[in-house]
């Protein structure tokens, strides 16, 4: 409407700059892209405006960003390595309370442990081996992130692919896929994950020994030392176990949406044009049902972190000396409540991370809803005539 302008906040102007920057890059790669996709760019702006007007959504973005920062840069900013046992140089480091200052002597043995001589402040205290808890929490963030990424890159997409096939073809194919899904859903996911995690490590250890490149890639991803590569088999077992139990809910969700989407006119037109089935599923149906899937993926990202921490707490995930939030809580629970910091701080990190992904997922549900976006559009618009009248009143 020509007589309307957006009443923008500071974050809205940041959103405009982000969308404009993306459009400029797209125009360089494909001249005229922003002109052809003007409607899409407007929708993206409205999505960001919706996010800017959700305090809980912004809180979720802040928590997720904080977690990603710790996970990506934690091993680099950690004051010590995840396995540095300070108590070998200063016995006071064992179960040291937060803020304890320990003195590391200047001798070859302590230098060999990677400890610099002088005073060192254990910001969040130390564990039963005298390891710096803050450093281990930073390394544990990397562990949680990599496990969540590897699980979400495979597990849900198995269910999405099966749901697309079942919903589109129907008949016996639908019945077979859904009955297999029902079998998996009949058992609690955590119980199945425990079962798979308990039997897989030995086989995966042999696999890693036979494929050193896989072990090297995992070592780099998890930021562990070469001597600790064998311990990664237990984490890989958790990842594979979660692949096997994380797909059924996606298969059921996607199948239901495809049953409705396949009857739409654009799908029938694609069939009439002879477009291959895989292209109809990937290009015409999947993008139009992506909203609920994206919301579920976001919330489940935090769910994977929580499940992995739970498995490590039960002794089925990370094994010493690897740093993992669930394992840190398990080791510290033996000294609770006297050494409360060993449980409180890693538990707080798990809570904030999962809470952040849940807030972000709930906000994405609103952002991807066209009705809510349009209501936001009406709220942030005002007529130029009204703006001029208000300006005149203020001047008088």
UniProtKB/TrEMBL annotation:
Domain ABC transmembrane type-1: 141-361
Family: Belongs to the binding-protein-dependent transport system permease family.
InterPro entries, per the entry: BP-dependent_transpt_permease (IPR050366), MetI-like (IPR000515), MetI-like_sf (IPR035906), OppC_N (IPR025966)
Subcellular location: Cell membrane
Superkingdom of origin organism: Archaea
A Pfam family recorded for this sequence: OppC_N
Organism: Pyrodictium abyssi
Keywords in alphabetical order: Cell membrane, Membrane, Transmembrane, Transmembrane helix, Transport
Name of protein: ABC transporter permease
């Amino acid at each position: 409407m020509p007589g309307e302008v957006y009443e923008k906040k500071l974050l809205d102007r940041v959103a405009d700059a982000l969308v404009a920057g993306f459009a400029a890059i797209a125009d360089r790669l494909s001249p005229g892209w922003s002109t052809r996709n003007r409607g899409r760019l407007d929708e993206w702006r409205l999505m960001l405006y919706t996010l800017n007007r959700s305090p809980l959504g912004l809180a979720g973005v802040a928590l997720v960003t904080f977690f990603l920062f710790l996970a990506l840069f934690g091993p680099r900013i950690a004051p010590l390595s995840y396995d540095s046992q300070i108590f070998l140089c200063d016995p006071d480091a064992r179960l040291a309370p937060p803020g304890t200052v320990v003195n590391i002597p200047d001798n070859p043995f302590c230098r060999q442990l990677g400890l610099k001589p002088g005073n060192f402040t254990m910001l969040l205290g130390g564990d039963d081996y005298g390891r710096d808890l803050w450093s281990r929490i930073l390394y544990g963030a990397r562990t949680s992130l990599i496990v969540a990424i590897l699980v979400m890159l495979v597990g849900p997409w198995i269910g999405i692919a099966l749901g697309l096939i079942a919903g589109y073809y129907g008949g016996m194919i639908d019945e077979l896929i859904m009955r297999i899904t029902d079998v998996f859903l009949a058992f609690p996911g955590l119980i199945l994950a425990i079962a798979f995690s308990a039997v897989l490590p030995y086989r995966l250890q042999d696999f890693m020994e036979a494929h050193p490149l896989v072990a090297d890639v995992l070592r780099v991803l998890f930021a562990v030392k070469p001597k600790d590569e064998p311990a990664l088999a237990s984490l890989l077992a958790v990842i594979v176990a979660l692949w096997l139990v994380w797909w059924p809910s996606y298969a059921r969700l996607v199948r239901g949406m495809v049953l409705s989407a396949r009857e739409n006119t654009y799908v029938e037109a694609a069939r009439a044009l002879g477009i291959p089935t895989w292209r109809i599923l990937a290009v015409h149906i999947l993008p139009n049902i992506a909203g609920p899937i994206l919301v579920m993926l976001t919330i489940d990202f935090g769910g994977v972190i929580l499940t992995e921490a739970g498995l490590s707490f039960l002794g089925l995930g990370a094994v010493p000396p690897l740093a993992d939030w669930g394992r840190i809580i398990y080791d510290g629970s033996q000294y609770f409540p006297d050494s409360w910091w060993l449980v409180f701080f890693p538990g707080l990190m798990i809570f904030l991370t999962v809470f952040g992904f849940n807030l972000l997922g709930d906000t994405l549900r609103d952002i991807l809803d066209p009705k809510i976006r349009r209501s936001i559009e009406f709220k942030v618009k005002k007529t130029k005539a009204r703006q001029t009248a208000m300006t005149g009143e203020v001047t008088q």
